[in-house]
Amino acid sequence: MTNLVQAQEETNENDFKRWQVRLRGIGVVPNEKATIGGIGGDVSISNALVPELDFTYFFTKNFAAELILGTTKHDVHTVGSDISAIGGPTSFDVDLGSVMLLPPTVTAQYHFFPLRDKSFKPYVGAGVNYTIFYNVKEGDVVKGIAYDNAIGFAAQFGFDVMFDDTFFVNFDVKRLFLKTDVSVDATNLAEGLVIPAEVEINPWIIGLGFGMKF
């Protein structure tokens, strides 16, 4: 009898849907700062609102891994740069055009079940991302811009509210810790003028969406 009860408990423990997929609308809010060589100043990076798709696999009812996929476009310009060396003002915002970011991110998560009916499921997570910078548009001021792809870290928290055992609504917040080296080719403004910069983007990513388990 004891063996039968233990077998039933083990079956119940492993009887759950291991996959879930979510479609979210996300707001990406950079918390940016930069060290800019030569002309000084800081950087401003625009916010973005885009769709995001993610997949989660549950190893147990509590432990899971999530893959997050999405891409964003951001306008970029410097703030308060000194371009007097090329005949400009001592405080000027240089338009650096736009760039698109593709930051696939994997997080390891722990899910909680504070309610007996398990309809409310908060979670926390941490992981890594590899950000690819592409489709760079340099704008009308400088000749060209190059961004280095970069590895960063991610922290995450959120919750699912279950409609039933398949469908749910999700709220999610992530913080990416992301830094890239940038090289601005301004040789069209002055011979040999290449401006290096170290840019911290560190965006908050706030999402709301729907999902299903299977």
Overall description:
With 214 residues, the protein is mainly beta. The chain has a single domain (23-134, 147-179, 199-213), classed as Porin. The chain contains one helix and 15 strands; from the N terminus they run H-E-E-E-E-E-E-E-E-E-E-E-E-E-E-E. The strands form two sheets. The chain has an eight-stranded antiparallel beta barrel with strand order 1-4-5-8-9-11-12-15. Strands 2-14-13-10 form a four-stranded antiparallel β-sheet, with no helix packed on it. Strand 13 (179-185) and strand 14 form a beta hairpin. The longest helix has 13 residues, at 2-14. The radius of gyration is 23 Å and the shape is elongated. It holds the Pfam family OmpW. This is Outer-membrane protein y4mB.
Number of helices: 1
Helix content: under 10%
Q: Which CATH C-level class is it? A: Mainly Beta
Q: In terms of structural class, how would the helical and strand content be classed?
A: mainly beta
Order of strands in the sheet with the most strands?
1-4-5-8-9-11-12-15
Distance between the termini: 33 Å
What is the CATH-assigned architecture? Beta Barrel
Beta-strand segment tally: 15
Q: What is the domain tally?
A: 1
